[in-house]
Amino acid sequence: MSEKILVVEDDKDIQELIVLSLSTQNIGCIHTADNIDEAKKFLLSHNFHVVLLDLNLKSENGYQLLKYINTAYTKVLIVTAKDSDLDVYKGFENGAIDYIKKPFDPIELAYRVKVHIKPSQVLKFSHLRIDRASADVYKDQKLVNLTAREYDLLLCFSSNNNQILSKEQLYANVWGYDTAADDNTLMVHIRTLRKKIEINPNKPELIKTVRGQGYIFRGSIYE
């Protein structure tokens, strides 16, 4: 699967330059957003490996977006004209791993992204371990037999750890269409998945229901 990259930049010329520099190097599947609201929608519906974030988004502060990014899985590279030490430190304190000052060398930007683009293939959450390379799932070190749909659902949840996912988002990511036409289908799959991965399916600790909003995966991350 091609690595997904989100470019959050409201200057169209710079946005196009970033996209060109990455696509020329055949780096990932690139999405672009002009503002925080648009970026948030992408983050809720896709699992990104890298986010390139501008801090000056018209009247918005790019730092506001960092709290919506799960930096355990998504690498944040700040691309901005802000260059004070305070700006750099604030970005790192909020989860960024690299800082690229404008104007930048397009080739250097592409190579910096390439360095950070390979995510860990193993996700560990307390009693659960997911090996994305082999698609194996282990509960207390015992292999769990999941269907393809259950695995895709678990991967969607775990890759968006601590983020509320609506039924529509789950259908779009796992089933491949936008509208949750049959709530019962989703409920049945979540119920069977809970039976296989939860210590106590009647009191789930990982996949929790958020009344009126959807579901959230609450996994404590282990290295």
What is shown here, in short?
This protein is α/β, with parallel strands linked by helices and 223 residues long. The chain has 8 helices and 14 strands.
Question: Explain this structure to me?
Answer:
There is one protein chain. With 223 residues, the protein is of the alpha/beta class. The chain folds into two domains: 4-116, Response regulator (Rossmann fold); 122-217, Winged helix-like DNA-binding domain superfamily/Winged helix DNA-binding domain (Arc Repressor Mutant, subunit A, Orthogonal Bundle). Helices cover 37% and strands 25% of the residues. The chain is built from eight helices and 14 strands. It has helices at 12-24, 36-45, 63-66, 85-93, 106-116, 148-159, 167-175, 183-197, and strands spanning 4-8, 29-33, 50-53, 56-57, 60-61, 75-80, 96-101, 122-125, 128-131, 136-139, 142-144, 164-165, 207-210, 214-217. The strands form four sheets. It has a five-stranded parallel sheet, sandwiched between helices. A hairpin with a 2-residue loop joins strand 10 and strand 11 (142-144). Helix 6 (148-159) crosses helix 7. The longest helix is centred in the C-terminal third of the chain and has 15 residues, at 183-197. It is elongated. The two termini are 23 Å apart. The model has no long low-confidence stretch (mean pLDDT 86).
Q: Please provide the count of β strands.
A: 14
Cα shape: elongated
Element order, helices and strands?
EHEHEEEHEHEHEEEEHEHHEE
Distance between the termini: 23 Å
Mean pLDDT: 86
Largest sheet: 5 strands, parallel
Structural class: alpha/beta
- CATH level-1 class of the largest domain: Alpha Beta
Q: In angstroms, what is the radius of gyration?
A: 19 Å
CATH fold assignment of the largest domain? Rossmann fold
User: Largest beta sheet: what is the strand line-up?
Assistant: 2-1-3-6-7
Which percent band covers the strand fraction? 15-25%
